[in-house]
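2024-03-11 09:14:02 DEBUG pipeline.ingest accepted 1 chain
2024-03-11 09:14:02 DEBUG pipeline.ingest length=330
2024-03-11 09:14:03 DEBUG pipeline.predict start
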Amino acid sequence: MKHQKEGSLLLGLIALLTVVVIVAVVGVLALRPEKTLIQGEAEAAEYRVSGKVPGRIEMYLYEEGEQVKKGDTLVVIYSPEVEAKKAQALAAREMAEAVNQKAKNGAQREQIQGAYELYQKAKAGEEIYRKSYERVQRLYDKGVVSAQKRDEVEAQYKAAVATVKAARSQYEMALSGAREEDKAAAAAQVARVDGILQEVAAAEAEKYLLSPCDGEVSELFPKVGELVGQGSPVMAIVDLSDVWFTFSVREDMLYHFPVGSVIEVTIPALGNGVRYPLTVTHVKAMGTYATWRSTKQNGGYDVRTFDVKCRPTSDIPNLRPGMTALVIEN
């Protein structure tokens, strides 16, 4: 009987110790801090394609999801303003060239002959008025005509002399052609119009928007036929060869992410629980809006949030911008 009591007491003691051990293990497991989950997102370089001239979308040559190469024509814009300016510039070019050619060639033979005949006509008129003036002057000296009559004839004679000088100047100008200043002005006018034509050609080239990089069309903004202004984005191209991850990390955990260190992440969208290595390339404090405010109890302090940028150490197949990446603290 005594042995039975001792055995029962021993079993009870063992059971009690077992319960204590189980409770202790459960307590340790329960009190052990959970691993902190840090979540980030994949991002990629994105380019906004826009034009320098306003107009309407005439045609998209690529749709969303299609691959493009640098220099490919993506969009055609119809701009009636550019067409009108081109027509005006071409007309101005023809006019300026005609003026320039005239200045180079000088007066035509018919113009020279006409100027000579006018000069001869003026000389003949001068001769007639000179004789009339001399005759009236003699009569005036004899007291036959009045002073008023003599003054009228004298004025006519002086006018005839001035007409001869003017006709002679026109004749000599026709012989010598345009002055050097006129030729230079005509040439400058041609050069100015050529500059306008170059400007129009540059604007015309801007009707065809080209891809700035190899990549994928991620978004089309206006529809075909819609009006777009100068500099308005028309299409977005994402460069999938330039991908990185960004994580928002509290200041008290930042020591896990020194620049140059390598971390491992899982990407749920790619499945299989594979861990991918990333290199920390940049750390930057975020704005005050991302600060964790302390209640100031037990010596607490405000904890800022930092933006941590990481790049894959090697290519990650099927990675897309927007995919979530998870870092679990060891």
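2024-03-11 09:14:41 DEBUG pipeline.report Residues 55 and 81 are 8 Å apart (CA to CA).
2024-03-11 09:14:41 DEBUG pipeline.predict end
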